[in-house]
Design goal:
There is one protein chain. The chain has 267 residues and is an alpha/beta fold. The protein has one domain: Vaccinia Virus protein VP39 (Rossmann fold, 3-Layer(aba) Sandwich), CATH 3.40.50. It has 8 helices and 13 strands. Helix 1 packs across helix 5.
């Protein structure tokens, strides 16, 4: 649908500007990553397990740290993102590290136009589906890119978190749990560099759990599990406290912060 083009264009411009800021941020810890530290978190490591010799497609990879972390573990990894600056940096990191990951610059909904290969694993994580207006073509693409018997895994911020507006620094419940209308945000800084003077302009969409699950089922995938968790590995929402596990949660935890889904392509 043509109307999406302008939304994606604005979002891409913002993400292109985020890349150099994020590459220098404490959150992305690029120096430690280049020295061998994995960027992957316990949820995805536990769920996906050993990947040596397996083919893996990483959707919305930003500048490729997780893709490269899977590659370090022996996966034949391909990362995609719509940000030209993100993919440019990902390729530079891959070359510097001497890895064999591949990177493709394209919109996540257009992956099958750019990649014909099928994979053992399709992976996506943390702050990804909110950039997609309609999850049905997204799920269809995932099914197209999986081998029979291959699986899709996602770990994502819980949709309840996106019911709030955080622009004022204090959460204000403002949006529907599964809002069809686009949400526009304009604010200074980014989640990884809050003091930056960069102005972020973003269009996003809220997707409830039933929408995510049903899109994957309709695409022909079998849901293995859906889990919800109270802790997040990232301190990207106001008022979070660090726990003994090294993760973050709210002072008064009344709803989950994350969910994960694993789904298999049967045929």
């Amino acid at each position: 649908m043509p109307y999406k083009t302008n939304y994606f264009k604005v979002n891409k411009e913002t993400w292109n500007k985020k890349v150099p800021l994020h590459a220098q941020s404490e959150m992305y810890a690029l120096e430690a990553f280049m020295s061998g530290k994995s960027s992957l978190m316990p949820y995805e490591l536990k769920a996906i397990g050993p990947v040596n010799g397996m083919s893996l497609l990483h959707l919305q990879c930003h500048f490729g740290q997780d893709t490269l972390s899977w590659s370090r573990m022996g996966a034949k990894a391909v990362g995609i993102d719509f940000s030209e600056e993100g993919i440019k940096l990902a390729k530079q990191l891959n070359n510097t590290l001497g890895l064999d990951a591949q990177f493709v610059c394209c919109n996540v909904l257009d992956v099958s136009k750019h990649i014909e290969q099928s994979f053992d694993i399709v992976f996506t994580s943390y702050g990804v589906i909110g950039w997609i207006p309609d999850l049905k073509p997204w799920a269809k693409m995932i099914a197209e890119r999986l081998h029979p018997g291959g699986f899709f895994y996602m770990v994502e911020f819980h949709p309840i978190l996106w019911m709030f507006d955080y622009d004022s620094g204090r959460p204000e419940m403002k949006y529907h749990y599964s809002q069809e209308e686009v949400i526009y945000s304009e604010y200074q800084g980014t989640y990884a560099n809050k003091t930056s003077k960069m102005k972020s302009k973003e269009y996003g969409w809220n997707h409830g759990l039933s929408e995510v699950v049903n899109a994957l089922i309709e695409a022909g995938l079998k849901i293995n599990y859906l889990n919800e968790y109270d802790e997040s590995p990232y301190d990207v929402f106001p008022g979070l406290e660090k726990t003994k596990s090294g993760m973050y949660k709210m002072k008064e935890q009344l709803f989950p912060m994350l969910f994960e889904i694993k789904a298999t392509k049967i045929s």
